[in-house]
Design goal:
heterodimer, B: alpha/beta, FAD/NAD(P)-binding domain, 5-stranded parallel sheet
Chain lengths: 382, 487
C-alpha cells in the first residue's frame, strides 16, 4: 500500500470495537476508510462486555495503558474510562491465586498493592468483612463499552471516514493476489486493503478467500443492578467475576460458565440469557454483600469468538497480501486503543511499530488438528 | 505449554445448571379473570396447574412504578403486605373456584423470566419459568405456559409529569379495585376513549371526584353509551385541547393547565390514553410478536407451548386504531414540551438530551459531542431505541422503560418522520421485574458449577503474560489458575 493522504482506500469488515479503532487510527493517518457493519456499530460483543481494560498478558498491553487515559480527548467523545482495579478474594483458593498474580506483577514492575480485609473495605465500601483480602492494580481500568464503540465511530467520521451500517458483507473481488473490492448485497466497495474484523463471522468470510481461520463462538452472560452509591474505585473484580461500577453507579458483572455455539455465517441469531443470572447474582452478592439488597434490573448475553489458544489473531496475510485479519479472542474491548494502532501499522507499514506480534500470527495454527474444537470440548450441545 | 485435551470443557455449561424445584403441566402467569379461567379450565381437564400472580407487589416496587404506573398515589395500606394479600385475595372470588378445581394458587409470586432452548441456547435441560416472592427465587418446569399478564399503562411526558400524582389508568383501576388503596381525591383524566371513560366512571363510583377529562381530538372518542354515562355524571370533557403543564407542591400535583388556557384543580392526573399489552416475558424469551394497531401495540405471535390470554393477547379489537390515537396525543404533547421536560424519569433524561443523543450530565460534552444529534445519527441508519438508550440512558433505569419505552419509540417516529411501526421495539430482558441480588440469587450453586467456575473461558494460554511464554513461569500460571478443559 502506498503512503497516507493519496486517496488510498481501506475497507474494514466489521464495526466492532477492533474494526472501529483500526478505522480511527487509519483515518488519523489520513487514510480514507470505510467500515461496513451488518447492523449497528458495536451491536455484538463489543457493546456487551464488562468494559475491562487491564489485559496485562498481551503484547499490546503497554500501548493499551499509554492510550486509555488520552482516549476521551483524542476521540472527542466520552468513554467513561477510569483507572485502576481491585480484585477481591472470597475463598482461600482465590486468595492464593490473586496473590500469585500480584507477585507476577511485582516481577514485571507493574504497580500493585496487596490489601487486607480492612483495606479492601476502605477502597470498596460495598465489600464485606468475610473476604480474604484483595489485590489493587495501580494500572489498567475500565470504560463504558457502548459509549466507547460509538466514540470510535463518531471520531472516525469526524476525520472523514465512512460507516455503512445495515450492510452485511457477502464476498470479495480479487485480482493479482489481492482483494480489490468488498461486496455487500447492494454495493461493491473498491479498496487497496481490507481489514477483516468481523468477530464470529471471520471464518466464513475468510473461507471465501481460501484462508482457514480457526475460531469457536460461545455465549456468555452478564447482569446489571440499579445504581449503588459511588465507590472510590469502580473497577472491582473478584470471586471469579469480572465487572465494574458504571459512572452512574450500576454494578455490571459477568463470569462463570459459557456455552459453545455453532458457527453462523451471518452472525448470532439471538443472544439469550439464561437462569445462570441467579448464579451471577449469588456470586455478586457474596463479593459485594452490602449491595445484596440492590435490584437486578437486566441481564444480557453476547457471542464471543475464541481462537484455539485464546490469544488474538492480528496478522497481515501473505496471500492475499493486502488483507489483515483481526480477532481479539474475547479480550478485545480493553485492548482496542492498541489493537487499532497495530492494525493501522500492519495495513500501512506491514508490521507493528510498537510490539512484537509474532505470537498473534495466523500461521501458528497451520498445523492445528482438524478436530481442535472436539479435542477441547468446545462443541455446541447436540 | 504441554496441553492434554480431555475432550471436555469443564467450564462450559453442560449439565451443571441449578435444578428446577417443581414441574407442572401448565403454568399460568397472572390471576386476572382470563388467567383464572385458563387455569380452571386446564385443571378441569386433568392437568397439574400452577397459577401465579405478582399482586400484591411490594410498596417499594410500586414506588418505582412497577409493574403499573402508580405515580406515588397508593396509600399507606400498601405497606402492609398481610393486609394487601387479603385485599387482593378477597377481590378475586373466582380464585376459590380455581382452587376447588385443583389449581395451585400462589399470590405475591412474580414470574421474571421464561427460558427454553432455541437459537443461541441449547443448554437448558427443560423449559422453565423463573419465579420469586419476597424471600427468594426458584425455577419451575412446565409443558405449557399461559401468559395472562394483562396490559400496562402508556405513560406520556408533559411539563410537570415527573411528580407524584401523575399516573396511569391501569394503575388507578388497580388501586381502586384490587388494592383498595388509592390516595388521591380529585382526578383529571387524559383521554376520552373507552379506557378513560371507564376509569372516570369507576373513580366516581368509588367516591373519587373527577375534575374533568381532556381530549386532544375534536370529539370524545369512546362508545356513545359510555360518553352518555360520563356526561350524565356531569363530568366535563374538554375537547380539542391537551394538558400544557402540571403544577404541584411537596405532595405532588395540585393543578393542571390546559393548552386552551383553563386551569383545573386536581391532585391526580391520570394518563388514560392507552394500554400496552404486557409482553415482557414473551419478548425476553425471544418469542414471536406482531404489531397490531387495533389491539394496542405489539402482541404475542403465539406458539405451541406459549399462549397468551386476556389483554396480554391484545386489547379487544373494536375497530379503533390505538397507535394513531396515541401518536396524535404524543405529537400534541411533544409540541408543548420544553427542552428540559424529562422523558426518562429514572435517569432524568430530558427531551433535548434524548433528541440530541447526549450523554448524562456527569459526563463531559466536548464540542464534537455537542455537534451530534438524532439528526446526525439518522445519517447512519434508521433510529433504534436500544442504540438511543445506550447513548442517552433513556430506559436504562430501575423501571426499565416501563414509563418511557413507548414514548421514546413514538418520539423517534415523530422526529425521524417515520411510521411508528418502523421503529424497532426496545428490547426486554429478564428479569422483567427488578429483583434484589439476594432474592434472585441461587444460594445453592451446583458443585460441578463451583468447581469449574472461571472468570472467563478457562483457556490457560490466554492468561499467561507474554513475557512468561516459554519460561519456567508458564507452567506456574497454568497450575495456579486453571481448572478447565485440560489435564
Amino acid at each position: 500500500m502506498s503512503g497516507p493522504g493519496n486517496g488510498s482506500e481501506v475497507v474494514i469488515v466489521g464495526g466492532g470495537v477492533t474494526g472501529l479503532s483500526a478505522g480511527w487510527w487509519l483515518a488519523r493517518s489520513g487514510v480514507k476508510v470505510t467500515v461496513l457493519d451488518k447492523f449497528i456499530v458495536g451491536w455484538e460483543a463489543s457493546g456487551r462486555n464488562g468494559g475491562g481494560a487491564s489485559h496485562y498478558q498481551s503484547p499490546l498491553f503497554d500501548e493499551e495503558q499509554r492510550m486509555w487515559p488520552q482516549m476521551d480527548e483524542l476521540l472527542g467523545y466520552p468513554t467513561e474510562h477510569r483507572s485502576g482495579r481491585i480484585i477481591i478474594a472470597m475463598t482461600e483458593r482465590q486468595w492464593e491465586q490473586y496473590r500469585f498474580v500480584a507477585e507476577r506483577h511485582h516481577r514485571l514492575g507493574h504497580p500493585v498493592e496487596v490489601l487486607d480485609t480492612k483495606q479492601v473495605q476502605d477502597a470498596v465500601p460495598l465489600a464485606g468483612d468475610t473476604c480474604f483480602g484483595g489485590v489493587h492494580y495501580k494500572f489498567g481500568g475500565h470504560a463504558n463499552p457502548q459509549r466507547t464503540v460509538q466514540a470510535y465511530a463518531w471520531a472516525l467520521q469526524d476525520l472523514g471516514g465512512t460507516i455503512i451500517q445495515h450492510s452485511p458483507v457477502t464476498g470479495f473481488e480479487t485480482a493479482g493476489g489481492k482483494v480489490t473490492a468488498v461486496k455487500t448485497a447492494n454495493a461493491t466497495y473498491g479498496c487497496d486493503s481490507v481489514v477483516v474484523a468481523a468477530g464470529p463471522q471471520i471464518p466464513a468470510l475468510m473461507a471465501q478467500l481460501g484462508v482457514t481461520v480457526p475460531l469457536a463462538p460461545a455465549r456468555a452472560e452478564m447482569i446489571i443492578t440499579e445504581p449503588a452509591p459511588m465507590m472510590p474505585i469502580g473497577g472491582v473484580d473478584g470471586h471469579k467475576l469480572y465487572g465494574r461500577q458504571t459512572l452512574r453507579g450500576n454494578l455490571a458483572y459477568g463470569g462463570g460458565p459459557h456455552e459453545w455455539l455453532d458457527m453462523d455465517a451471518t452472525g448470532p441469531q439471538a443472544r439469550p440469557s439464561t437462569p445462570l443470572m441467579r448464579n451471577l447474582a449469588s456470586r455478586l452478592a457474596e463479593l459485594l454483600p452490602k449491595a445484596a439488597h440492590l435490584n437486578v434490573i437486566r441481564s444480557w448475553a453476547g457471542v464471543i469468538e475464541n481462537t484455539p489458544d485464546g490469544r488474538p489473531i492480528l496478522d497481515r496475510l501473505t496471500s492475499p497480501d493486502n488483507v489483515v485479519v483481526a480477532s481479539m479472542s474475547g479480550v478485545g474491548f480493553g485492548l482496542s486503543p492498541a489493537s487499532g494502532h497495530a492494525i493501522r501499522d500492519l495495513v500501512i507499514d506491514g508490521s507493528c511499530s510498537f510490539a512484537d506480534l509474532d505470537i498473534l500470527k495466523l500461521s501458528r495454527f497451520d498445523t492445528l488438528e482438524a478436530d481442535w474444537r472436539q479435542k477441547r470440548g468446545w462443541m455446541p450441545i447436540a | 505449554m504441554d496441553l492434554n485435551f480431555t475432550g471436555t470443557d469443564l467450564c462450559a455449561i453442560v449439565g451443571t445448571r441449578s435444578a428446577t424445584e417443581a414441574k407442572y403441566d401448565v403454568v399460568v402467569v397472572g390471576a386476572g379473570p382470563s388467567g383464572i379461567a385458563a387455569a380452571t379450565e386446564a385443571a378441569g381437564s386433568g392437568s397439574t396447574v400452577l397459577l401465579v400472580d405478582e399482586n400484591p407487589v411490594s410498596g417499594a416496587l410500586m414506588g418505582n412504578d412497577v409493574p403499573l404506573y402508580f405515580g406515588g398515589r397508593m396509600n399507606a395500606a400498601t405497606q402492609n403486605s398481610a393486609r394487601m394479600l387479603e385485599a387482593v385475595f378477597m377481590s378475586m372470588p373466582a380464585l376459590e373456584t380455581a382452587m376447588e378445581a385443583g389449581v395451585e394458587v400462589q399470590l405475591g409470586v412474580t414470574a421474571w423470566g421464561v427460558y427454553r432452548n432455541g437459537p443461541g441456547v441449547q443448554s437448558l435441560p427443560a423449559q422453565v419459568v423463573g419465579l420469586a416472592d419476597a424471600e427468594r427465587s426458584w425455577l419451575v418446569g412446565f409443558d405449557r405456559i399461559v401468559l395472562a399478564t394483562g396490559a400496562r399503562d402508556l405513560a406520556m411526558a408533559f411539563p410537570g409529569w415527573n411528580q407524584p400524582g401523575v399516573m396511569g389508568a391501569a394503575a388507578l383501576q388497580m388501586l381502586l379495585t384490587r388494592y383498595d388503596a388509592f390516595a388521591g381525591h380529585r382526578v383529571l383524566i387524559l383521554g376520552s376513549h373507552d379506557l378513560a371513560l371507564e376509569t372516570a366512571l369507576l373513580a366516581r363510583e368509588r367516591g373519587v371526584q373527577v375534575a374533568g377529562m381532556v381530549e386532544v381530538r375534536e370529539q370524545p372518542q369512546g362508545s356513545d353509551a359510555l360518553i352518555a354515562k360520563v356526561t350524565a355524571e356531569g363530568i366535563a370533557i374538554h375537547c380539542a385541547t391537551t394538558i400544557a403543564s402540571a403544577k404541584g407542591g411537596l405532595e405532588g400535583v395540585e393543578a393542571a393547565t390546559l393548552t386552551n388556557g383553563e386551569t383545573i384543580d386536581c391532585d391526580t392526573i391520570c394518563v388514560a390514553v392507552g394500554l400496552v399489552p404486557s409482553i415482557e416475558l414473551v419478548d425476553a424469551m425471544h418469542g414471536p410478536r406482531v404489531l397490531d394497531a387495533m389491539r394496542g401495540g405489539y402482541v404475542p405471535g403465539g406458539e405451541a407451548t406459549v399462549s397468551a390470554v386476556g389483554l396480554c393477547a391484545g386489547l379487544p379489537d373494536i375497530g379503533f386504531d390505538h397507535i394513531a390515537y396515541r401518536m396524535e396525543w404524543m405529537a400534541a404533547l411533544s409540541a408543548i414540551s420544553a427542552d428540559d421536560t424529562i422523558i426518562c424519569q429514572c435517569e432524568e433524561v430530558t427531551r433535548a438530551d434524548l433528541l440530541g443523543v447526549q450523554p448524562p450530565n456527569y459526563l463531559a460534552r466536548p464540542a464534537p459531542m455537542c455537534a451530534r444529534s438524532l439528526e446526525t445519527l439518522l445519517h447512519d441508519g434508521p433510529a433504534n431505541p436500544d442504540q438511543i438508550k445506550r447513548l442517552t440512558r433513556a430506559g436504562m433505569g430501575v423501571c426499565q422503560g416501563r414509563r418511557c419505552r413507548d414514548q421514546v419509540a413514538m418520539l423517534l417516529a415523530i422526529a425521524s418522520d417515520k411510521p411508528f411501526g418502523t421503529i424497532p421495539l426496545a428490547s426486554h430482558r429478564a428479569p422483567v421485574r427488578p429483583l434484589p441480588l439476594k432474592i434472585l440469587a441461587d444460594w445453592n450453586e451446583p458443585a460441578a458449577m463451583t468447581v469449574a467456575w472461571d472468570v472467563w473461558f478457562g483457556i490457560p494460554t490466554q492468561w499467561v503474560p507474554v513475557e512468561d511464554i516459554g519460561t519456567v513461569h508458564e507452567d506456574e500460571h497454568r497450575a495456579m489458575l486453571y481448572t478447565g478443559m485440560y489435564e
